[in-house]
Amino acid sequence: MDESRLFIPLNIGNIEIKNRIGMAGVSRFRADDQHVPTDLMKEYYCQRASVPGTLLITEPNLISKRNVGLRNAPGLFTREQTAAWKTIVEVHMRASYIFAQLCVLKHEILGKEATIIRGPGTISLDTDLPTTKAMSIEEIKDTVQDFVRAAKNAAEAGFDGVELLGATGDLIDAFTQEDTNQRNDEYGGSVENRSRFLHEVMKAVAHAIGIKRVGLCLSSGSTSQDIRLKKNAALQFTDVIKRADDLKIAYIHLTEPRIAESNGIRDNEWLDFACTAFRGPILIQGGYNSKLAKNLVDGRHPDKDIVVMLGRYFTSNPDLVFRIQHDLEFTPYSQQDLFATKSFKGYTDYAFSKEYLGSLNILTQLLC
């Protein structure tokens, strides 16, 4: 049995996870055309909760009917979507835990054909994307309430909490970043003002469902959807993380850049800074394997509550926690199948390891 701190329980908000390996949210496009979760999704999440006490973060959930540009992504803005998620969560993920990731795309649907891009300002740095339309103050306030309604729906569905997606260039990230937020009102123009939208979302959602049920995902090196990381970005992330720390949210989840490693060890000053600025648990995602994960929690930060999050390898290894604990090889994932729509292929057809299945047989015999 592995004696790494990866397998020591940890309190996160109102829950106690039994290991420090979690599933990060990865878009999978298996909801139906009305963004309602399906039975196929139920099978998928139950498979990945195969090791009791594991923390799972769902793929991004859309929070408004105006914001449904991501095909076959699940949502949490209708009663039907909430009820469908409840059928997934009510089995309580085989004694594991699950947070619903909430996001806002910058695409706004006006009709069957018309689509605009809304964001903090009118600038567009990426020639592949249309110029954005600056959101009004009223639209910003309405979006905060969209988060609140989605969070309440998540609580009704039985989720242990929600994770606010402030990474990958989506709306929260766009407000936070200097390149995409060039407003000159209370939501832009300074480090503090660029953090305002996210801070308002965190406070409003915490008031609605409880601060211990709120997590925040940030990306320290995202360059997607117009984002171009500045040298002084640490100032902005310092402000954001300190606000999250002051509120005492359940955790922050950092999607870090793929830092070069030597002898299975990474040197990442950004992570070291975050571990100092945020006093609660920190979830870390960024291409980790078993060796890097163990070094992170046992070697670099033995006194910090860190959970190592894996995304794509969790898609192809439903028993991933068991494999790490027993030093088993990972099944490679299919890049193409990650983006398939409504298909079981590359989704629920990945096999459990023979060692995991054998452990279930032994347990069954002991209980008989």
From TrEMBL:
Gene3D superfamilies: Aldolase class I. The keyword Cell cycle does not apply. GO terms for molecular function: FMN binding; NADPH dehydrogenase activity. InterPro entries: Aldolase_TIM, OxRdtase_FMN_N, Oye-like. Pfam families: Oxidored_FMN. Residues 6-329 form the NADH:flavin oxidoreductase/NADH oxidase N-terminal domain. Keywords: Flavoprotein. This is NADH:flavin oxidoreductase/NADH oxidase N-terminal domain-containing protein. It comes from Trichoderma harzianum CBS 226.95.
